[in-house]
Amino acid sequence: MDKQNAGMSYAISVTRQQDGKTAVVSTRGHELAVTVKKGDGSAGFNAAEMLLSALATCLLTNVNAIAAKMRLQIEDARVEITAVRQDEPPLLTQVQYTLTLDSDESPEKLEELHRLAVKWGTVANTVTQGMVANGRLTISP
Fold first, then answer.
1. pTM of the entire structure?
2. d(CA 26, CA 58)
3. Predicted pLDDT of residue 140
4. Containing H/E element for 97?
5. What is the pLDDT of residue 108?
6. pLDDT at 41 (0 to 100)
7. In 71-121, where does DSSP find H-type helix?
8. Three-state DSSP state, 129
9. Were 36 and a residue from 23, 50, 111, 122 both cysteine, which residue would form a disulfide, CB within 3.0 to 4.6 Å?
10. Which CATH architecture has domain 46-128?
11. Phi and psi for 38 in degrees, rounded to 5?
């Protein structure tokens, strides 16, 4: 990997549970239950909701970090996301979010914060620029 592309790396493990409808996501000593049975949201977030949650978390992470660098006072921040899914092929065709900031800072500074939060977002850039995922199958006995 060249120096320009060197950076953080991420590793997670998702293991389907014996009930066939849940899985556990694990990373860095943390765990999260998710749904892996299509149409059953009883066990937790489904994959699309996890993706949208990752986008919102990415934006809020950058709002925190960039507001501190810009010395902006943000009292509260929230992201609400809606998405539309088509069935064939399964694809999120529309994703819309609203970033709500509770702050007495000027609208111009908050617009700049929003722009930078999107620009420097790992997940935001991945989603908007269309990531190519490469995979392989291994079969255990």
1. 0.86
2. 19
3. 81
4. strand 91-102
5. 96
6. 81
7. 107-119
8. helix
9. 23
10. 2-Layer Sandwich (3.30)
11. -55, 130
Question: For the chain (length 141 residues), average pLDDT per consecutive 10?
Answer: 68 93 94 89 89 95 97 96 93 93 96 95 89 77 81
CA proximity to 112, closest of 84, 72, 57: 72
The answer to whether the beta carbons of residues 31 and 17 sit under 8 Å apart is: no
3-state helix, strand, coil in the chain (%, to 5): 35, 30, 40
Residue extents of the structural domains in the chain: 10-45, 46-128
**Nearest partner of 79 among 63, 100, 62, judged by Cα:** 100
Contact assessment for residue 54 and residue 119, using Cβ atoms and an 8 Å cutoff = no
Nearest Cα to Cα of residue 101 among 109, 93, 110: 110
DSSP 120: T
In this structure, which amino acid lies at residue 112? E
Short-list 126, 132, 135, 129, CA closest to 51: 126
